[in-house]
Amino acid sequence: MSEEEKNESQDAELAAICAKTRKSLIAKLDNWEDQRTWDEFYQTYWKLIYAVAIKSGLRADEASDCVQETILSIAKQSKKKLYDPEQGSFKTWLMNMTRWRINDQFRKRKKDTSMQQNDWDDERKTAVIDRFEDPNGMSLDRVWDAEWRRNMATAALSRVKAIVSPKQYQIFDYYVLREWDAGKVQKHLGVSMAQVYLAKHRVGSVLKKELDKLQQHGDS
């Protein structure tokens, strides 16, 4: 299987997870006024929460539950106006909300099954996420930062895709994201060199604006 086929397979798996979790989540939000806003929120942040949950040691089904419970908790707190920007950034708040829901999943796992001693400290009852470090010795905060940046780029590209024309995005994808030579893009897509450079400029400009919007939200 080629690298492109592997990526397509992984994207399909994530899309299936997204659809299942989103459907269940939206059903629980049906009594709330602004369901569309929460759907957009979900589409923006679910991959971030899911990726960190997986890296913390949760299984795929546990990570999906973590996504749903995190967003539900945020929706409830937002409805009660419990989030105070003066106390810290949204980015940090979301990280803490995610950490707590991951901890909940480890507690649920311990309750449902007998965990081995090296997975759980019986004295401190400390979930794996609180002791988590990746192979490079990175703390959870640094892992969150890395996933945050990756997720912001993905979310921004998704928004850009809905704004620009399919042809311009396709050119941008091959020329900028996949780093194809301009001549190769021209020949493969049957476009002029001017179209290649124009797409790079226009789509790149829209992408920068969307990234700035997301970043401002995270820092607020």
Structure notes:
With 220 residues, the chain is an all-alpha fold. The protein folds into 2 domains: 1-132, Orthogonal Bundle (Rna Polymerase Sigma Factor, Chain: A); 153-220, Arc Repressor Mutant, subunit A. The chain is 73% helix and 0% strand. It contains 8 helices and no strands. The longest helix is centred in the last third of the chain and has 27 residues, at 193-219. It is elongated. The N and C termini lie far apart (43 Å). Mean pLDDT is 78; it is low at 122-127 and 133-138.
Quick recap of the structure?
With about 220 residues, this protein is mostly helical. Helices cover about 75% and strands about 0% of the residues.
Strand content: under 5%
CATH superfamily of the largest domain: RNA polymerase sigma factor, region 2, helix turn helix motif
Q: pLDDT under 50 segments (min length 5)?
A: 122-127, 133-138
β-strand number: 0
Largest sheet: none
Q: What is CATH's topology name of the largest domain?
A: Rna Polymerase Sigma Factor, Chain: A
CATH architecture of the largest domain: Orthogonal Bundle
CATH class categorisation of the largest domain? Mainly Alpha
Structural class: mainly alpha
Distance between the termini: 43 Å
The general outline is: elongated
Domains (count): 2
Nearest-integer average pLDDT: 78
> What percent of residues adopt helix (DSSP H or I)?
over 70%
SSE string: HHHHHHHH
Tell me the Rg in angstroms. 20 Å
Number of helices: 8
